[in-house]
Amino acid sequence: MPCKTVLASSVAAKFTEELKEQVAAHPEHRPLLVGFLANDDPFAVKYAEWTGKTCVETGIQFELRRVDREQLEEAIVAANADPAVHGIIVYYPVFNNRQDQYLQSVVSPAKDVEGLCHVYCYNMYHNIRFMDEEKTRKCIIPCTPLAIVKVLEHLGVYNTILPYGDRLHGKTVAVINRSEVVGRPLAALLANDGARVYSVDVTGVQEFSRGPGISLQRHKVVDKTESVEDILPLCDVVITGVPVESYKVNTALLKDGVVAVNFSSYRNFSDDIKQKASLYVPSVGKVTVCMLQRNLLRLAAYQRPQPANAP
Amino acid sequence: MPCKTVLASSVAAKFTEELKEQVAAHPEHRPLLVGFLANDDPFAVKYAEWTGKTCVETGIQFELRRVDREQLEEAIVAANADPAVHGIIVYYPVFNNRQDQYLQSVVSPAKDVEGLCHVYCYNMYHNIRFMDEEKTRKCIIPCTPLAIVKVLEHLGVYNTILPYGDRLHGKTVAVINRSEVVGRPLAALLANDGARVYSVDVTGVQEFSRGPGISLQRHKVVDKTESVEDILPLCDVVITGVPVESYKVNTALLKDGVVAVNFSSYRNFSDDIKQKASLYVPSVGKVTVCMLQRNLLRLAAYQRPQPANAP
């Protein structure tokens, strides 16, 4: 079978090593990540457990705080103000409605390891990569989209011969999921790096791209009349995140040698994907947890009196 | 029939007069409100038309810009930066998902006449009424919740003998709708002003209050086990905003002499409400449009070089 299955653990390994070294290098500044869990959602609980386990491995301090959802906002505000806390993660869903998006922006940008507060989202969509004119403080990128970028780098989809920021030029990618937390930011990130991205959800297909010859500074979005069946055969990379057990990508539509990446908690590709794909990544969760910690170390460094030595 | 029906137009009349006077007082600073319409939603179109008509009446300049939804974000960013534009309103829904909430925070707080960007929402929930320590710039309150507050003031529900900020002390209010745009902010506003508020949606009942003797600085929220049938008989005021034609409040459950206010585009009270209520307000839209313009004049004043003479 020519398809190579790449496990998230193998991508995560080098990041875990880097994290360990960075934490060990500053024993006097062991950063504290605080996780807030205000629900019993099994995926949220699992994500919280994973965070804890990986932090033990890397040496980051992790404190899981279980709070009533009605006390969560005040708990976040207190953690924002507490200098002992370097990073904050909230395990969503909490209210499972738009109030969750409000809560995302209650987390201070200085401690938002998830990169979900408005200023980070805005900067990401606008391809603004630094928080300051002097380019000393990088913007935080949401963990799951960032993890998928790192997976694609690992897989060689990013071409390092091309200049930084244009390394997906020539690639066509489908992202099946257009949530505000993963699918839409991911489509924007990949398009900002030069790809032509087809963003797919139940309402239809959109194209995110920087135009012919990646002439635009940042992506623009165009509604398409094509269906997912029309665009899948064009794609070099297909990334799925459909949170439904029964959903499966129709393997017959995929290009031979496609790169297939699944970030759903369910398997969105059928078993026959290995007859079609060149590279298959069944999950990305372990890389996501690394990115969370990477974001934490960055923010912790920015919080130090100075000189700010960003990891 | 003892029930008095109060039309939004009669509440709006005095605000329209005030707006006219304020605009006429500064002919050299006629403010420009820009409305963005990126959909064909009939209520959004109607709201845009109303805005236009009322602006003609008050002398405010209004410019409706029809844009493709994919161009909307850039159009907002351009209007944020344009000194000729004093206020911005977006007629939602645009994408009718969480991307709309992202767009709300793309509007600059300096021009956000709707009061929907994160900083205004956060300040409202936290009962922070000014943007600056010196208390020279008031926070903008979302238009529909603010309109309902003004309706309740008009109806005498706010007791002006009590100190400002506590004028609903002793009142019990139901708000049937807990959307992020109207119901939840409204519940918070009323609770911050001293009321005990039951916030009702399909997921259940919550209580927003400042505790016994309104001892807290701002409201807290508690999940209740009571149903809407349990709490409605306790309420002095019932405010509804259920966007469903078939939904009707069960009049039999209401307290005799209740104050009934409907802000849904549909009539959430049955015709027999007039046999039960002391005051009935069938809609608030015309007051909402006044609040929009009131917010605009305030923001326009803050944008003037100075002295900032807030209306």
Mean pLDDT of chain A: 94
What kind of oligomer do you see? homodimer
Number of H/I helices of chain A: 9
Give the H and E element order of chain A.
Answer: EHEHEHEHHHEHEEEHEEEH
Strand percentage of chain A = 15-25%
Task: Going across the biggest sheet of chain A, name each strand in turn.
Answer: 1-11-10-9-5-6-7-8
Could you estimate the helical fraction of the residues of chain A in percent?
25-40%
User: How would you sum up the global shape of chain A?
Assistant: globular
The CATH architecture classification of the largest domain in chain A is 3-Layer(aba) Sandwich
CATH top level class name of the largest domain in chain A: Alpha Beta
Number of strands of chain A: 11
Q: Main sheet of chain A? A: 8 strands, mixed
Number of domains of chain A: 2
Greatest contact pair?
Answer: A-B, 22 and 21 residues
Category from helices, strands and their pairing of chain A: alpha/beta
Tell me the span between the first and last alpha carbons of chain A: 40 Å
Pfam families (chains A, B): THF_DHG_CYH, THF_DHG_CYH_C
Family (chains A, B): Belongs to the tetrahydrofolate dehydrogenase/cyclohydrolase family.
GO molecular function (chains A, B): methylenetetrahydrofolate dehydrogenase (NAD+) activity; methylenetetrahydrofolate dehydrogenase (NADP+) activity
Main location (chains A, B): cytoplasm
